[in-house]
Amino acid sequence: MTKALERAAARRRYERQQKALAQRRIAAARNKRVVVVVVAVLAIVALFVGLSGFLAKSPTTATPAAGTTPTTTVAGCPQPPAPLGTNAVGLKLPDKKTAAGKTFTAVVGTNCGDITFQLDGTKAPQAVASFAYLADQNYWVKAPCHRLTTAGIFVLQCGDPTGTGSGDPGYGFGVENAPKNNIYPRGTLAMARTNDPVKGNGGQFFIVYKDTTLPGGYTIFGKVTGGMDIVDKIAKAGVADGGTDGTPAAPISMLTVSVTEKKG
Predict the structure, then answer these.
(1) How far is CA 263 from the centre of its chain?
(2) How does pLDDT run across 173-193, given as a tens digit for each residue?
(3) What distances in angstroms separate CA 215 from CA 55, 153, 169, 252, one per listed residue?
(4) Where are the domains of the chain?
(5) What is the distance between the alpha carbons of residues 263 and 104, in angstroms, rounded to a whole number?
(6) Which residues, other chains included, contact 98 with Cβ-Cβ below 8 Å and sequence gap of 6+?
(7) What class does CATH assign to 96-261?
(8) From CA 138, how far away is CA 158, in angstroms rounded?
(9) Of 136, 120, 140, 139, which is closest to residue 128 (Cα–Cα)?
């Protein structure tokens, strides 16, 4: 009887040990899964941060570009006035029907002289309607062209009254007339945008001064018909901090903008 009791007690001890061992194995497996999930999440976060950093340096975004305050002027470009800031309060996205099927001429008066655009309301009615509306609202008075890129992407970016790269008119709209081959020829006038293709367009735009391949899709809404020599001059002066993406070393600002419909 005693031996039977001893055997039963030994069996119970063995069962308890096996149960504890099984629980430890389950816990170890669970902890391993948790570690794998955490590592995966960290990898995704790192990828997102890296992508965000890339987007912040692309013409797709309205975030501030790196650079120092420009102090050098080039021939024919006196120092522009200080930015007035934004008067975006109360502005509303205009109906694209106001520009649909029409062609417009825009004259942008800068501290370096006039730059003239032809706006295509047939291919990009919403962008053109917005441009004409913001011009009529004096949205761009004393608005610096805040960003120049000189490597791989060759654009002068303008349209933010604050001069920081973060200003917008308080509304947004989607991409129109983006080239399928991602090629933006010299003289192209296109909308800059955030990484939101649905409402990422606002008041910022860029002028292409050298043929550029730019994936992602940006609205082409016109072309430069006069004043490319001014853009070339600013581009040749480079970036203020000596880099390839940032504030132009030679400051240029939009002082006045007038838009008129072309008849016939």
Answers:
(1) 34
(2) 999 999 999 999 999 999 999
(3) 12, 11, 25, 27
(4) 1-56, 96-261
(5) 9
(6) 129, 132, 133
(7) mainly beta
(8) 15
(9) 120
